[in-house]
Amino acid sequence: MTDPEALSPLLRHIAKGSATTRAHLARTTGLSRSSVSQRVDALLSNGLVIEDGTAPSDGGRPALRLRINAEAGLILVADLGATQARFAVSDLAGAELASGVQELVIDQEPIQVLAWADRHLRALLDTAGREARDVRAVVVGMPAPVEFGTGTAVKPPLMPQWDGYPVPGYFAERYDADTLVDNDVNLMALGEHRAVHPDLEHLLFIKVGTGIGCGIIVSGQLHRGADGAAGDVGHIRVPGCDTPCRCGNSGCLEAVAGGQALASHLTAKGVAAATVRDVARLAAHGNTLARQEVRAAAQHIGEVLAAVVSFANPSAIIVGGALAQLDEVLLSGIKSGVHGGALPLAQRSLRIGASVLGERAGTAGAIALAQERVLSEEGIANLLRIRRSG
Amino acid sequence: MTDPEALSPLLRHIAKGSATTRAHLARTTGLSRSSVSQRVDALLSNGLVIEDGTAPSDGGRPALRLRINAEAGLILVADLGATQARFAVSDLAGAELASGVQELVIDQEPIQVLAWADRHLRALLDTAGREARDVRAVVVGMPAPVEFGTGTAVKPPLMPQWDGYPVPGYFAERYDADTLVDNDVNLMALGEHRAVHPDLEHLLFIKVGTGIGCGIIVSGQLHRGADGAAGDVGHIRVPGCDTPCRCGNSGCLEAVAGGQALASHLTAKGVAAATVRDVARLAAHGNTLARQEVRAAAQHIGEVLAAVVSFANPSAIIVGGALAQLDEVLLSGIKSGVHGGALPLAQRSLRIGASVLGERAGTAGAIALAQERVLSEEGIANLLRIRRSG
User: How many CB atoms lie within 10 A of CB B134?
Assistant: First the structure.
């Protein structure tokens, strides 16, 4: 009984904590007690789960509680942004063992950036006292539209040299692990959902940084769209604006209200601001012009999100990215734009709030994505193969 | 072995045709041959499937092919529109046994409309020579936001008397059947997806009739949103327009480009047009003013859909409703609006086309929805209960 298809549903329940004893697993899956016992024995003997204390029982002996064996594999995360990268090593239970942040210019030859990232990941493995051979998943986040199936960026405006570059191949030569590549805002949406709002069915994560992007959770799952381009709200047109956008169109939300646009507006008005972080800092310190810019941007973002709310009827909009640290200015502007533009019914259960995870949302999402892959049927088949050959 | 949880996956494969022999079911589900045989025997002895000819086999005897027993239950459909209703009776395999169309004024006391609808459904049962006691699902479509879980309309602008009215209760007293209530455009989207594009992951169905609405398929499933309000694109604001809308806002797409709006525009210009059907007829007969109106409306609809495409990155947009019969005028305007406004990547695999099912899309979707419910675990538990007691 080492059939991944039979083991995966049990592992998922154990990982989520939705059923952690043999009796509870039997009730939840509808399998017989003997099938469950057989499968749990296989999970235990293959080192995928461990017994961990006891749970209250309906009578008789207390039941043994199961949990994922955190030592069954490691997860590496390289969350690459336009100007910085966050790295992390976690165990299979999702506990972060080491992490770090580095400055980065992403628009270089991919091979150079990946080699640089891999050096940092190996240094983190050393810090954590772990071995590269135990890595079972590598997750790379990128500020780009990503074809998730192949792990390649598609026509990425911020990093044109990466167009079509097969990122998974780089790591496949170096680790006995699956490599998953995803858009950075998708990872933030997944992280915020899994860690803070696992109960919400439909969630949007809007990132207001250098650019503007949106991660979409539908029925608890990431919606990447037909080409990995879903959530590209930064290129929705803002009524009455015709600022040229780097995408070739004009009047795009990002060209009007993105952090880079606000920095340019301020510079033109004589306030030195090179990046979105400068804008955030100025506004946080009470600079009137900066606060005006953020307020106007928030209103535009809110108007575009009003259309999105009418279309998607989400349960929550989470606002993150460098400008979101100014909660009240950005958030209240976004709220007023949405409230004024969408139908009351589509907002009936809508919450709008700032990201709780903040800068850690992306790595949290990457770890969640890796866990789900490693505990999938395919992932379990890999674990068993490695165990047999190891 | 009459555990609905064990039987449901097999039934779904048999219904979809994705596995119709015992050997194929075993390969597809990962269950052992003996478990599959046991479960198939239970399905056969309970009359849920029947054996129907043979399939080519890998050698040895040809395998017996299984299919859903069409006689295991009946489905009733009342697809209520603003001005007409379509009724249908189908068997559990989805074959339509009888159908009809009736004029309707929907904004009346719900009890009156439902009693009227039930009379028509019973007449269709008579026509088909079937019995009310064999009905296992009733599906009601409505031009309103619907809370799917409870089957109630929520603040429906076209039919305010229905607000919160518990439609399922009406049919529960009359049939031993599940009643499902859904928005009419959701049913059209589901029908077009299941019948014409089952292979597409993400599909939008835009209905341009008296009003404008959108049904959303994400990962093959209907996306209804947090409040059943998803797809309400008719109330997205059109830049530069401030026509008052019946919803209380102004500049809504529906108030600018909906069929009722076009009829009013034409009337104001001296061309008699009371409804969207008049507009469609005039344009189809070459009336220049009518064609101009449709062309302008299509451009506005296309612009709003460009934003939706940037957000959702769908695989296809299907255009239906009374105005869609004028394929080239409406479709080409919508295409040009989308192409000009959304990023190339989000359109890379996008198809835009007219509904193939046309006026039958709603009933097709209703039948598909009912089949999926009846073959779910809960539905099978019901079928077995009725069989035991009957």
Answer: 18
* Two domains, one topology: B73-188+362-389 and B195-358: yes
Look up the CATH number of domain B195-358. 3.30.420.40
Write down how long chain A is: 390
Superfamily of chain region B73-188+362-389: ATPase, nucleotide binding domain (3.30.420.40)
The residue extents of the domains of chain B are: 4-68, 73-188+362-389, 195-358
Residue pair B229/A345 in contact (Cβ under 8 Å)? The answer is: yes
CATH 3.30.420.40 fits A72-186+362-389, yes or no: yes
Q: What is the pTM of this model?
A: 0.91
Q: Residue B233 and residue A202: Cβ atoms within 8 Å?
A: no
Got the DSSP string for A101-158?
EEE---SS-HHHHHHHHHHHHHHHHHHHT--GGGEEEEEEEESS-EETTTTEE-S-TT
Q: Give the whole-angstrom CA distance, residue B107 versus residue A212.
A: 43
Q: How many helices (H) and strands (E) would you count in chain B?
A: 13, 14
Is the per-residue pLDDT at B367 higher than 90?
Answer: yes
State the fold for domain A4-68: Arc Repressor Mutant, subunit A (1.10.10)
Rounded CA gap, B245 and B249, in Å? 6
Q: How far is A315 from chain B (nearest CA, A)?
A: 5
The ipTM estimated for the assembled molecules is 0.90
Residues in a beta bridge with B226: none
Q: Does the distance separating the beta carbons of A225 and B314 come in below 8 Å? A: yes
Cα dihedral sign for B212, B218, B224, B226? negative
Do the Cβ atoms of A235 and B308 come within 8 Å?
A: no
User: Smallest Cβ distance to B313: which of A225, A343, A349?
Assistant: A225
For the beta carbon of residue B55, count every other beta carbon within 10 angstroms.
Answer: 14
How close is the nearest chain B Cα to the Cα of A89, in Å?
Answer: 31
Q: Scanning every residue of chain A, which has its alpha carbon at the shortest distance from the alpha carbon of B340?
A: A249
What are the pLDDT tens digits along chain A (390 aa)? 568 888 888 888 898 888 889 989 988 887 888 888 989 999 998 888 999 888 776 666 778 899 999 998 999 999 998 888 999 999 999 999 999 999 999 999 999 999 999 999 999 999 999 999 999 999 999 999 999 999 999 988 889 999 999 999 999 999 999 999 999 999 999 999 999 999 999 999 999 998 899 999 999 999 999 999 999 999 999 888 889 988 888 899 999 999 999 999 999 999 999 999 899 999 999 999 999 999 999 999 999 999 999 999 999 999 999 898 776 889 999 999 999 888 888 888 899 999 999 999 999 999 999 999 998 888 888 888 888 886
Inter-chain CB proximity B218 and A223 less than 8 Å: yes
Q: How far apart are CA A311 and CA A317, in angstroms?
A: 14
Q: Which residues of B touch A306 (CB under 8 A)?
A: 236-237
Domain A189-356 = CATH 3.30.420.40: yes
Considering only CB atoms, which chain B residues are within 8 Å of A348?
Answer: 154, 226-227, 229
Contacts of A343 in chain B (CB under 8 A): 229, 232, 235, 247, 249
Cβ contact A226–B145 (<8 Å): no
Q: Do A235 and B30 touch (CB under 8 A)?
A: no
